[in-house]
Amino acid sequence: MMRPGTRLRGISARWCSVKTMERLVDPALADLQLEYESAVVSGRKWKRRWVWTAGHLAFLKMMAAHGTARALGLLHDLTAEDRQTLTRTFSYCAGIMMLGTLLLVVPFLDLVTLSHPRSATLLLYLFPQALPLSVPVGLTFGILWGFGRAAASRRSRTVVLIVAVAFSAVSFTMLAWVVPATNQAFRVSLMGRPVMKGINELTLGELSQLIETRGRDPKAVPDSRDIRRLALNYHARWALAGAPFVLSLFSVSVTHRRRRGRWMLGLAGGAAISGYYIIMYAAKELGLDRTVPALAAAWAPNVAFLLLSVLYLAGSLSTPVRPPKNS
Q: Were 164 and a residue from 86, 99, 245, 288 both cysteine, which residue would form a disulfide, CB within 3.0 to 4.6 Å?
């Protein structure tokens, strides 16, 4: 039986320095293992489960605090040029996110009439479902336009990727709980009566529970195509939550050492976003047809763009930087 914390230590060792491992990771995991083994020896099953859960949560909280401290230290070391580059980049990101959100909401406005007694509330319910789609678009174009025409330092690229991770975490929260709740609230408010939840209105936990129920009792979800839709929807939410980081990494890799004009960067952003969603919908159809497993179909666009990012970075690092010509 694997000791609790062994996997966490293996993951931490890949990303943390030796000093961080010695001062933070190893002592925290040693305490977790000591308390867990004490509960096992005493035969207290619920105590053992509580120690495992509380220990892992405490470890994650400690690593989040450590990461925040490192990020704040990084911000303190930014130069004036870094701040200017990041200000420009995040301004582009915010503007495109807002524009993208509005464009995604507009097609549904015909459902919200001003005569409806709760028209303002209905309108607010539309925005959460648009944000997980508009955020990756905003980050992609913002980074391309912000980094593509000026040399971005390693510190600036790191800050952008940290922000992208934060957006992925927010997107996961939206897709797992907020969007299903607001979708259902919108439907109930629009119809004026209780409405049965569809797949998109189920939280991530409810989806997982329904899939597990189908595994124990096939009659719970009799249609095999419906169970594939449930599995695809479940894995797709996890994958789409990773889109802000994946597309940000791709944009950073594209602009790592090459400078291009704004139109070229705009075309690159459009091609990236179109390619991502084309792969996503094509893979979804393959998943529904059982050509590929649901997990592979959901993560196909993220894997494709991660590979492209690695190829771009490898190509840019292997290409020598040409010194500027003397005027």
A: 245
